[in-house]
Amino acid sequence: QVQLVESGGGLVQAGGSLRLSCAGSGRAASGRTSSSYAMGWFLQAPGKEREFVAAINWSGGTTYYADSVKGRFTISRDNAKSTVYLQMNSLKPEDTAVYFCAATYWDNKRVPGQYQWWGQGTQVTVSS
After folding, report:
1. Could you give the CA distance from residue 112 to residue 40 in angstroms, rounded to a whole number?
2. CA pseudo-torsion sign 27, 30, 34, 36
3. What is the percentage of the chain residues whose pLDDT exceeds 70?
4. DSSP 3-state assignment of 15?
5. What is the DSSP string of 71-117?
6. What CA–CA distance (Å, rounded) separates 78 from 98?
7. Residue 33 pLDDT more than 80?
């Protein structure tokens, strides 16, 4: 079973930065680890649907972003450490949410139902 654990959330003022990490462990039934899967970050604000933030292919060579975070957030990965990162700059109050990382078999997926494994989430709160 692939397991994902997010960290790095917290309280930050508007305009500030945070770096989220998602550490993977374990193996799927196929024997593959999280380092061989495409990864994504999603956010979920209170009372709202979970929504796509960013995704990265298995090698880290291709990245995808929601329009709302382009130019502010950067997704990256270090497969030697089985870790995916989300660098968040110029944070806004509307970025406040629980952030989840997830793993999927397929590249460039933006719908939560297309991801097979999920972390427990980390809270990001941006004060104005």
Report:
1. 9
2. positive
3. 100
4. coil
5. TTEEEEEEGGGTEEEEEE-S--GGG-EEEEEEEESSSS--SGGG-SE
6. 23
7. no
CA–CA gap between residue 24 and residue 11 (Å, rounded): 24
Which whole-number Å values give the CA distances from 80 to 112, 114, 116, in the listed order?
26, 25, 22
User: Would you say 56 and 39 are in contact if contact means Cβ atoms under 8 Å apart?
Assistant: yes
Over residues 65-105, the pLDDT tens digits come to: 999 999 999 999 999 999 999 999 999 999 999 999 999 99
Name the residue among 60, 44, 18, 31 with its Cα closest to residue 101: 44
Amino acid occupying residue 113 = G
The answer to whether 104 and 84 are in contact (CB under 8 A) is no
Q: What are phi and psi of 114, to 5 degrees?
A: -90, 5
How far, in Å, CA of 74 to CA of 65, rounded? Answer: 8
Q: How many of the other CB atoms lie within 10 Å of CB of 40?
A: 28
Q: What is the mean pLDDT of residues 26-45?
A: 87
